Amino acid sequence: MFKISVMIAALAGVIYAIVHLKTGGLPGAGLMQAGELSWCKTRVKSVSNKLENIAVHQEGMEWKATAPAARQLEPTYMEKWLGQNCKVKVDGYLDSYVLPGGQTETVMTFIDDQTTTFLRTEENTFIHQGTTFKSRQLELALRELFQTLRQP
């Protein structure tokens, strides 16, 4: 009798999960609590994004854009940008996520030649090291960087 009760309870749980997943998700699933993400484990030496056609790297003490056009940046621009954005506010973490079309990947390369990547899947939504999160700060920071690098 106990086994039958356990099987009925398990079946009820499965039916409950199926119904809720079909109608928008399980209660409590989705966006988890906010926080901060510190992604600069050491000094950054380059930033690139092929889809956005931007690339910038450090040579000595100077930062130089190589795409969309080669030029030297203002001496402190990248240092300030990195100082403000090496730690970003996370508005919330997503516990699961299906990728829509139109992803763009920003690659940060460190002085030890290791990289970290931010895959932007939609506005304010990124995947970093297997974790999906929402960050308005990172969205605005990358947008501002891309616009600055596109200026002549």
| Helix content, binned percent | 25-40%
Principal-axis shape equals elongated
Mean pLDDT level? 83
Radius of gyration: 21 Å
* H/E element order: HEEEEEEHEEEEEEH
Structural category: alpha+beta
What strand order characterises the main sheet?
Answer: 1-8-12-11-10-9-3-4-5-6
Oligomer: single chain
Number of strands: 12
Strand content: 35-45%
Low-confidence stretches: 19-31
Structure notes:
This protein has 152 residues and is α+β, with helices and mostly antiparallel strands. Helices cover 30% and strands 37% of the residues. The protein contains 3 helices and 12 strands. The radius of gyration is 21 Å and the shape is elongated. The N and C termini lie far apart (78 Å). Residues 19-31 have low confidence and may be disordered.
The gist of it:
The chain has helices at 2-22, 77-85, 136-150, and strands spanning 31-32, 35-38, 44-49, 54-59, 62-67, 71-72, 87-90, 92-94, 104-110, 115-122, 125-128, 131-134.
Characteristics of this structure?
alpha+beta, 3 helices, 12 strands, 152 residues
Task: Provide the fold topology.
Blueprint: H1 2-22, E1 31-32, E2 35-38, E3 44-49, E4 54-59, E5 62-67, E6 71-72, H2 77-85, E7 87-90, E8 92-94, E9 104-110, E10 115-122, E11 125-128, E12 131-134, H3 136-150
Antiparallel strand pairs: 1-8, 2-7, 3-4, 3-9, 4-5, 5-6, 8-12, 9-10, 10-11, 11-12
